[in-house]
Amino acid sequence: MSEDGKERVVELRYEGGAHTLPLLTGTEGDEAFETKTLLSATGKVTLDPGFANTAACQSKITYIDGEAGILRYRGYPIEELAAHSSFLEVSYLVIHGELPDSGQLKEFSEQLRANAALPAEMRAMLDAFPRDAHPMTLLASAVNTMAAFYADTVDPKDSEQVDRATILLLAKLPTIAAHIYRNSVGQPPLEPDDSLGYVEDFLRMTFGGLSGESELDALFVRAMDLLLILHADHEQNCSTATVRVVGSSQASLYGSVSAGVNALFGPLHGGANQAVLEMLEEIRDLGGDVDSYLAKVKDKESKTRLMGFGHRVYKNYDPRSKEIKGLAAQILDRQAEPDELFELALRLEAKALADPYFTDRKLYPNVDFYSGVIYRAMGFPTSMFTVLFALGRLPGWIAHWREQRLDPAARIARPRQLYTGHAKRSYSGS
Ligand code: CMC
Known about the structure:
Blueprint: E1 9-14, E2 17-24, E3 32-33, H1 38-42, E4 62-65, E5 70-73, E6 76-77, H2 78-84, H3 87-96, H4 102-114, H5 120-128, H6 135-149, H7 159-184, H8 198-207, H9 218-230, H10 238-247, H11 253-265, H12 272-285, H13 290-298, H14 319-332, H15 340-352, H16 356-360, H17 368-378, H18 385-405
Antiparallel strand pairs: 1-2, 2-3, 4-5, 5-6
């Protein structure tokens, strides 16, 4: 509506006709031409590969201003949440819309701690996978099979079941992730310890000694918590859009999140954090020549991208990357020797941001550029990096799935196409 209360519209003219589209305004950010009557009124569809110009829903969860480098969860700037909150608080905020009071936070935390253990059959299932399988493949499988282990929590129409599935997923994902890691390095998995906090216990279950004892490094605990906060949601990214698409068919929360884990695995999305580290190792092994690597990236024939750079939405510094870079400096400066991969990343960034190829295309470091050097310093192998992204993104996936479930405007996701194949031809005609 405009200020005088009239509906704002845009006139679409095309050969042979015209159509009026409402122009919708959100709280802030892009306005939207509403095209939902377009096909029925004009017989035409929109063509938008990668949905770069398409808003698939209205959402109240996360706001991004990609030009200004702004990210807010439920209205709170990411920098304030990073400075003052915890991952559990942020998870509650993202899912329920408001920060929890102390009683709500205590109850939430207790529910998660009480449900962290895995049933013996699920542990046996995880133990049956090949030890060298990628942890993301196992994570997606484990989340999917939760629909089998908790079959009384799969009905998306039942709010109590949805609340229960929400708690079970949040509670068990760190245990599953730690179990997968321990198997991959040939160590017996550890049971959760409900006297510890969510992040502390995840690190203990991952790196603890054989009897479960662990000296937790306070800075690593805080760093892990902060990294999870910074990954908690990012509006309609590829994996969240996947969770929504799968959920739109009224599939279970587990099936939808499992699909999201698989979408996250790709190197253009969450898999980029692993790819960045592998790229830095490759540059180091070739003698640390940043200039020739950048020359290769700029040569389109090489099909090489500067991993951890560029973003569909940010045309400015990704605000998460700024936070993570500061954290990486804090952690790596404690080491006796400078971290060669962090030094390389800093040199790559400086060179890229002084190069018109990157500045003209507004390519800046994204969330994945510096996170890997921190995970590496903590002791995680590269294959676990995207699993850590998934642990962080879980509240966002859940929040979007739940929001869509209650959205009266939501419909099954079913895009159109512009058909460019053969016109009708006959099997026996040639
Ligand atoms: N290195 C070199 N060139 C790039 C890069 C890059 N990382 N990213 C984009 N470009 C170029 C691209 O070649 C194109 O150039 P031209 O206009 O000459 O054809 C231009 O920039 C626009 O690129 P695009 O592919 O149309 O951009 P997109 O919005 O479709 O893709 C992206 C976004 C994130 C997939 C892409 O920037 C990329 O592949 N980055 C590297 C992978 C990465 O770091 N992914 C993590 C993304 S952030 C966290 C997450 O989503 O999980």
